[in-house]
Amino acid sequence: MTPAARLQAAIEVLDQVIVSARDDGPPADTIVSRYFKTRRYAGSKDRRAVRELVFQAIRVVGEMPANGRSVVMALARQNETLLDLFGESRGPEPLVDGEESAEAGYIPKWLHSELSPLVAADEWPVLLERAPLDLRVNVARVSREKVCAQFEGAELTRLSPWGIRLRSETRIDDHPAFTGGLIEVQDEGSQLIALACLPQPNDRILDLCAGAGGKALALAAAEPAAIILAADTNRARLQNLAPRAERAGAQIEARLLNPNQELAQLSDWAGKADLVLVDAPCSGSGTWRRNPEGRWRLNPARLDRVVALQSRLLNIAAELVRPGGRIVYAVCSLLSREGAGQIEDFLSRRSSWMPEETPIAAGRLDGIGKLLTPAHDGTDGFFVARVVRPC
């Protein structure tokens, strides 16, 4: 493919990404892969080049764009060599006088007032930088120093005692440490949420929004004697836990829940959990480094829905915790309503509950919890807080 043809391919992929963002369809990575499955003529260099153009363009435009051409035009305004490709053979149609590009920006304007005050404008560019590849070492079976020595260019993470950091392009899926259950891909910030749970021997721990089980696996590695139940309403994600747990040698029970029936289906845990981890569904604003088109997926109505869901999940968790037990609440978000505001609202509803210090040496105080950000901590963006039920 010529450079012009690659640019046209990027426009076509971006058109599909925009539709998918509006309809809550598959992520950009999946769309790029599907695009090239029907274009066998494109070599590996072509695929890499188009993918890079697509993600560069997505990172440039914060607001939902009209179409892929307008997004590529915004990128071309910052990289003028691309402007010369418009009108070339197999490339985009020539530029038209007065044709407008999408507006460049880091964050949709409607979200500016929703951001935590800690996330100042000088941090915004870092929210869109390419993220590194972080691994969590299964410390129940091996030291992270031993695993780190198996990867060229690896370094120990600064904040998590379980993590190592690799170059973002490193392949690990066929590495013996991965197939042998010694490592899992997990951002350092996500590891710190598990660390904030402070699991103890024989603790009864419920991971209420377990997803594919990443944090449940981290808890099991940190404290193999804990009793861990991983629950979720998403069958497709939860079914990934069993093979991961088997690979890691972890004892974790999984339970699929029906939406709006969670308390009934967890009645055997009511008032018995030492700790409930609520790693709640959220805006995903803390993971824009990895999923920059997430800015296009989010809108006020969707934000309202996830905020309401977070509140409901906290209420469910409160019924499952024993007297003297704890909730650890976490979201991969930089928005106040989902973080400090959400936990403040919970404490206003349940005034006998008490906040606890968040026991991680990272982040900045945000209300009663801590906020991790890419610029300040080098992790994805997370809010995490601990609250305790009175005895």
Computed Rg: 22 Å
**How many DSSP-defined strands?**
13
Helix vs. strand class: alpha/beta
Strand content: 15-25%
Could you state the order of secondary-structure elements as H and E?
HHHHEHEEHEHEHEHHEHEHHEHEEEHE
CATH topology of the largest domain: Rossmann fold
Number of domains: 3
User: Low-confidence stretches at least 5 residues in length (pLDDT < 50)?
Assistant: none
**Can you give the helix content as a percent range?**
25-40%
Biggest sheet character: 9 strands, mixed
CATH architecture of the largest domain: 3-Layer(aba) Sandwich
CATH class division of the largest domain? Alpha Beta
Q: What's the total helix number?
A: 15
Shape: globular
**Mean pLDDT across residues:** 95
Distance between the termini: 68 Å
**In the CATH hierarchy, what is the superfamily of the largest domain?**
Vaccinia Virus protein VP39
What is this structure, in a nutshell?
The chain has 391 residues and is α/β, with parallel strands linked by helices.
Give me the secondary-structure topology.
Elements (H helix, E strand, L loop, with lengths): L2 H21 L4 H10 L6 H17 L7 H11 L54 E5 L6 H5 L6 E2 L6 E4 L9 H4 L3 E3 L2 H9 L7 E4 L6 H9 L4 E6 L2 H4 L2 H8 L4 E4 L5 H4 L7 E7 L14 H4 L2 H21 E11 L8 H10 L4 E3 L7 E3 L2 E4 L1 H4 L4 E7 L3
Parallel strand pairs: 5-6, 5-8, 6-7, 8-9
Antiparallel strand pairs: 1-3, 1-4, 2-3, 9-13, 10-13, 11-12, 12-13
Helix pairs in contact: 1-2, 1-3, 1-4, 2-3, 3-4, 7-8
